[in-house]
Design brief:
This is WhiB family redox-sensing transcriptional regulator. Helix content is 61%, strand content 0%. It has one domain. By secondary structure, it is an all-alpha fold. Bound molecules: iron/sulfur cluster.
Length: 114
C-alpha cells in the first residue's frame, strides 16, 4: 500500500455516513457513464482490453460521483472488485480497498453505515 492508496481511501471517509441506497442513487443519477450511455455519446469500445480500459478510465476521471461510485463498489464487491470503476484499474483499486477496509474495520472513520 502506498501513500497515494492511503490518501484515496481517506478521501472516501466523507461517504462513510451515506447509506447504500444514497450511494446507488448518486451513481445511477449522476454517474457520467450512465449519462453518456443514455445519450448515445459513450465512446466506442475498441475490443482491445488495454485501450478500452484507458477509455473507461478517462470517462470515470471526469465523473462527478467518483467517490460515491468507489465507496459503493467497495461495499458491494469488496476485494472482488473488477473492471474500471471510479476511475482506478483493478490492481490499484484492490490496493485502495485494503486501506479502506483497514480504516473501516479499525474504527478510524466516524459516521460509518452498518
Ligand atoms: S466513476 Fe466511472 S463507473 Fe463510476 S459512475 Fe462515474 S463514470 Fe460510472
Amino acid at each position: 500500500m502506498s501513500e497515494v492508496h492511503e490518501r484515496i481511501a481517506a478521501d472516501l471517509d466523507e461517504c462513510a455516513g451515506l447509506a447504500d441506497d444514497q450511494l446507488a442513487h448518486a451513481v445511477r443519477n449522476r454517474g457520467l457513464c450512465g449519462w453518456l450511455s443514455t445519450s448515445g455519446e459513450y465512446p466506442e469500445w475498441t475490443g482491445d482490453f488495454r485501450s478500452d480500459q484507458e477509455l473507461a478510465a478517462r470517462v470515470c476521471a471526469a465523473c462527478p460521483v467518483q467517490r460515491e461510485c468507489l465507496e459503493w463498489e467497495f461495499r458491494t464487491r469488496g476485494h472482488a472488485t473488477a473492471g474500471v470503476w471510479g476511475p482506478l484499474p483493478e490492481d490499484e483499486r484492490r490496493a485502495v480497498y485494503e486501506c479502506w477496509e483497514e480504516r473501516r474495520d479499525g474504527g478510524t472513520v466516524a459516521g460509518e453505515q452498518a
